[in-house]
């Protein structure tokens, strides 16, 4: 019977149908989605930390208001994504427990420090830029609740990317020599980690083949990374910065930029928990959870009281 159901499911996927929460799906499809969506949600929530670090030090009221709104959006993205994952039968408590005990991953990029104000602009430009490149195809993910969440998220990410690029343009066009150097230094530190956001090369990506077949991922890690480099280098030229890659060159035949070798040892070290800020990020999330215990207890006590009253 399962074989029949699986065949029917595969046929729907091949026909370009979207799968809804109550539809039958293979266990492995469900597991893959819970893994990817929950890790995506964790990335949004952990991703608030590097930028949150600069809210109190933003240089003007305008920049502070923008940054506050951006970080708040990220909290919202995390919540839509946790909700999308919950439709697959997992609970928020289970997902958070997996994050807090180090079992669930979140994007490697958020384990790097934000050393100067220019990092905030560069995160918008490069990190949100990479996020959009990866997330626009997810708006067509075969699992409909995830696809729907991604539509709204992508609209907001696009504002995030632009605010970052605009703040860098201001620094590069009207800033002091010191401010310009600060932007270049931030680009030097964030360039390679941004390319790593797309995940391992296709040949080393254990989940890609099945996820592509099921329409969970629509474009491969390497293809998205290439699209990102092709889109970003002209933007770097307008900005007046260079990327720290001596091997970068335009290939007129393929009409793509060729880029140098990514340090995969660094990538796996950071994914494995040993990046510059992994411990600090996880400790901040665990502390926030522990500090919020009284709120959860109060909410439960209130709900119980309401229920008893409704019965009486
Ligand atoms: N970091 O077989 P694959 C944002 C893991 S954007 C850490 O290729 P898959 C917005 C991968 O999980 C960032 N781990 O895996 C924002 C797997 O391990 P597992 C979040 C990584 O799933 C901006 C193993 O390596 N975006 O937050 C990374 O097919 C600014 C093998 O890899 C998303 O999550 C990595 N970079 O492809 C917020 C998008 N790459 O799970 C604040 C949705 C790979 O088997 C400020 N996710 N791994 O133990 C995806 O598109 C996919 O999951 C990929 C990975 C492409 C990330």
Describe the structure.
There is one protein chain. By secondary structure, the protein is mainly alpha-helical. Helix content is 67%, strand content 2%. Strand 1 (249-251) and strand 2 form a beta hairpin. The chain starts with a helix and ends with a helix. 34% of the residues are buried. The model has no long low-confidence stretch (mean pLDDT 97). Phenylacetyl coenzyme A is lined by residues 35-36, 39-40, 43-44, 47, 74, 105, 107-108, 123, 127-128, 131, 134, 196-200, 205-208, 211, 217, 221, 271. Phenylacetyl coenzyme A (FAQ) is lined by residues 35-36, 39-40, 43-44, 47, 74, 105, 107-108, 123, 127-128, 131, 134, 196-200, 205-208, 211, 217, 221, 271.
Tag the structure with descriptive keywords.
mainly alpha, single chain, 67% helix, globular, 312 residues, binds Phenylacetyl coenzyme A, two-stranded antiparallel ribbon
How are the elements arranged and paired?
Elements: H1 2-14, H2 27-46, H3 48-52, H4 61-86, H5 92-100, H6 117-135, H7 144-174, H8 177-196, H9 208-213, H10 221-239, E1 249-251, E2 256-258, H11 264-271, H12 278-291, H13 293-311
Antiparallel strand pairs: 1-2
Helix pairs in contact: 2-4, 4-7, 6-7, 6-8, 6-10
Pfam family, one: PaaA_PaaC
InterPro entries: Aromatic_CoA_ox/epox, Ferritin-like, Ferritin-like_SF, PaaA, PaaA_PaaC
Protein name: 1,2-phenylacetyl-CoA epoxidase subunit PaaA
